């Protein structure tokens, strides 16, 4: 059997390892668009803050029997002939194909004037550019376009280096895609305590080079300065090369319960996919490392010939920002169903319950066992008798009398 994996992401590498273990005679080829060996993209902020001291620590091991080809950017898939075509004029045939190309930063329209001072932070080369700008510029302030997870983590890393940053936020608050207004207020307070500035209700319209720094023009006409601009407006699946194929996509690639696309023998896993959400019962993106690992394992198993079903997923995020743990899951941006909240001077807790089952939560502050909350939500365990413990962040597995339980990675 000949397997081709597009993308040397965590999902792609894990799929290759699974294929090796299940089909010792299989021929596995991994195509990577990048010129460097695979690395952990989720660890890039730690490289900036120097919590990761050496670049080498970011590199990921890849299966020894798989053929890893760097600098091979896929531009088309001929699903009839079962061939993958790259921009480097190479063609690779397959019996089974996995798409694991991940996601790429979304950069909104703005007048850049070809400025090298506008950066994203999705790749290792992006982080190298950011560190270089900070080193060379006399203006030791970074302008952050957007206040989602990526830029919030960059701000946290900058705070470790005592470098201030200014968030330019089109909406009225930070992390508006994963927390409610009250949760945002708590996080914003911690950000300001750590030297960050927040400008809300504004967008960047133009970035102009001025010597070794950038003049940044806002919609109001205000001009601010920084060593560079980091755009963190979220990511979108890397699916442009699928435009000429019959593979069905919405925001990402649509897959069935076996993680197979609309085209037979073509599978997808990781940040590039859309799968059914347990709470909303709609197709959603679940761009998370543990999700990518589980999807790639199941997809690869099915590529070999099994029929493993991928269960409905739940949205969640856990991140440490400005000394506080931010943990969200399910319905977290709004109030719905039965809502319970608890506020203290340095923490904010909220849970949402539907028919006695947990359907969402926001915790700004420590949670004793985050995995229990995800297991309770994924398994839809009854927590109606545990509301006090749940709102305190103190649920434990011993509190549930379930015949089986799923321990959930976060």
From TrEMBL:
Keyword Flavoprotein included in the entry's annotation: yes
Keyword Flavoprotein: yes
Keyword annotations: FAD, Flavoprotein
Domain NADH-rubredoxin oxidoreductase C-terminal: 326-379
Top-level taxonomic group: Bacteria
Name under which the protein is recorded: FAD/NAD(P)-binding domain-containing protein
Family matches, as SUPFAM superfamilies: FAD/NAD(P)-binding domain (SSF51905)
Cofactor(s) needed for function: FAD
Domain FAD/NAD(P)-binding residue range list: 1-295
Gene Ontology MF: a single term: oxidoreductase activity
Pfam family name, one: Rubredoxin_C
């Amino acid at each position: 059997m000949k397997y081709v994996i597009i993308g040397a992401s965590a999902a792609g590498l894990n799929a290759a390892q699974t294929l090796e273990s299940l089909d010792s005679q299989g021929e596995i080829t991994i195509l990577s668009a990048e010129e460097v060996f695979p690395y952990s993209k989720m660890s890039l902020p730690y490289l900036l803050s120097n919590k990761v001291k050496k670049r080498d620590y970011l590199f990921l091991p890849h299966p020894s029997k798989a053929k890893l080809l760097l600098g091979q950017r896929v531009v088309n898939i001929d699903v009839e002939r079962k061939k993958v075509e790259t921009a480097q004029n190479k063609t690779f045939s397959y019996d089974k194909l996995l798409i694991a190309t991940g996601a790429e930063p979304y950069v909104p329209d703005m007048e850049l004037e070809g400025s090298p001072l506008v950066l994203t932070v999705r790749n290792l080369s992006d982080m190298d550019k950011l560190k270089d700008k900070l080193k060379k510029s006399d203006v030791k302030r970074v302008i952050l376009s957007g206040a989602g997870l990526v830029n919030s983590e960059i701000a946290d890393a900058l705070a470790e280096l005592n470098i201030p940053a200014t968030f330019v936020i089109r909406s009225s608050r930070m992390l508006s895609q994963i927390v409610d207004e009250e949760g945002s207020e708590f996080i914003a307070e911690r950000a300001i305590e750590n030297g960050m500035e927040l400008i809300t209700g504004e967008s960047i319209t133009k970035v102009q080079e001025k010597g070794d720094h950038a003049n940044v023009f806002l919609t109001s006409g205000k001009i601010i300065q920084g060593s560079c601009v980091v755009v963190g407006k979220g990511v979108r699946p890397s699916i442009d090369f699928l435009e000429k194929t019959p593979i069905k996509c919405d925001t990402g690639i649509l897959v069935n319960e076996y993680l197979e696309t609309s085209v037979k023998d073509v599978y997808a896993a990781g940040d590039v996919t859309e799968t059914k959400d347990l709470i909303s019962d709609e197709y959603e993106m679940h761009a998370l490392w543990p999700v990518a690992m589980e999807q790639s394992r199941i997809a690869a198993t099915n590529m070999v010939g099994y029929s493993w079903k991928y269960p409905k997923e739940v949205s969640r995020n856990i991140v440490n920002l400005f000394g506080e743990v931010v943990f969200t899951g399910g319905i977290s941006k709004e109030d719905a169903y039965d809502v319970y909240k608890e506020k203290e001077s340095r923490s904010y807790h909220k849970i949402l319950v539907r028919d006695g089952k947990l359907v969402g939560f926001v915790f700004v502050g420590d949670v004793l066992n985050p995995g229990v909350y995800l297991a309770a939500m994924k398994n839809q365990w009854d927590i109606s008798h545990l509301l006090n413990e749940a709102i305190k962040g103190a649920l434990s597995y011993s509190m549930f009398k379930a015949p089986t339980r799923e321990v959930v990675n976060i």
